[in-house]
Specification:
GO terms for molecular function: tRNA nucleotidyltransferase activity. Homohexameric ring arranged as a trimer of dimers. This is Ribonuclease PH. Keywords: Nucleotidyltransferase, RNA-binding, rRNA processing, Transferase, tRNA processing, tRNA-binding. The structure is a single chain. This protein has six helices and nine strands. β6 and β7 (about 170-175) form a beta hairpin. It is an alpha+beta fold. The chain has helices spanning about 75-80, 85-100, 105, 125-145, 175-180, 210-235, and strands at about 15-20, 25-30, 35-45, 60-65, 110-120, 160-165, 170-175, 185-190, 195-205. The strands form two sheets. Strands 1-2-3-5-4 form a five-stranded mixed beta sheet.
Length: about 240
């Protein structure tokens, strides 16, 4: 039995509120159970120096957690004077995941920055950030298309992510914190809407896993991403 009482292949309840902020070109508050992430997308008519003049666009991301997103207060990274290694790793993951679903030629020489701010954490914050980040990105690109600033849709495929792992010897999907903290195997699966893999982060934490278990987790991930993509499309229709 999972602590939440969910079935092995049952995800947490997912909800999305678009247009959550007034000023961003695209914004969405995504809730996956008790993990809540605010995602905003900002369009700028500039690109990083390393692609300037190439005609290619760029999508990047930043990630952060509010001090009381967790059960004890975390010090703001700004007050420490630098970002932690976990933050840097996650925001790089979000950026390269979202870029995998973008035609950078069609986007043109402009940059879209997706900010993912965790309001409340209960496991799976990077997966929620990627899934909600794509929604914010989609809404921002819709504005570019409506204004005629891009000719063809630069978003080639939705991008979503879900965690899967081995908990109490069983493969489960969408781990919350009680499961994540006790899981023998923990993984994050980032895929496109057409079920093409972008990245898989898997690690054994206290126990190893078999090829058959890996395949079972892949099956769960495909099921979860399919459900999330349907939610993304519904939120941005």
């Amino acid at each position: 039995m999972r602590p939440s009482g969910r079935n092995l292949d049952e995800m947490r309840a997912v909800s999305v509120e678009t247009g959550f902020t007034k000023h961003a070109e695209g914004s969405a508050l995504i809730k996956m159970g008790d993990t809540h992430v605010l995602c905003t997308a900002t369009i700028e008519d500039r690109v990083p120096p390393f692609i300037k003049g190439s005609g290619l666009g760029w999508v990047t991301a930043e990630y952060g957690m509010l001090p009381r997103a967790t059960n004890t207060r975390m010090r703001r990274e700004a007050s420490a004077g630098k970002q932690g290694g976990r933050t840097v790793e996650i925001q790089r993951l979000i950026g390269r995941s979202l870029r995998a679903g973008v035609d950078r030629v069609a986007l043109g020489e402009r940059q879209i920055t997706v900010d993912c701010d965790v309001l409340q954490a209960d496991g799976g914050t990077r997966c929620a950030s990627i899934t909600g980040g794509w929604i914010a990105l989609r809404l921002a690109v819709n504005k570019l298309m409506k204004a005629g600033d891009v000719i063809s849709d630069p978003l080639t495929d939705p991008v979503a992510a879900v965690s899967c792992g081995i908990y109490a010897g069983q493969p489960v999907i969408d781990l919350d914190y009680p499961e994540d903290s006790e899981a023998g195997v923990d993984g994050n699966f980032i895929m496109t809407g057409s079920r093409r893999l972008i990245e898989v982060q898997m690690s054994a934490e206290g126990s190893t896993y078999s090829r058959d278990q890996m395949n079972a987790l892949m099956d769960l991930a495909e099921k979860g991403v399919t459900e999330l993509v349907a939610i993304q499309k519904g939120a941005t229709a």
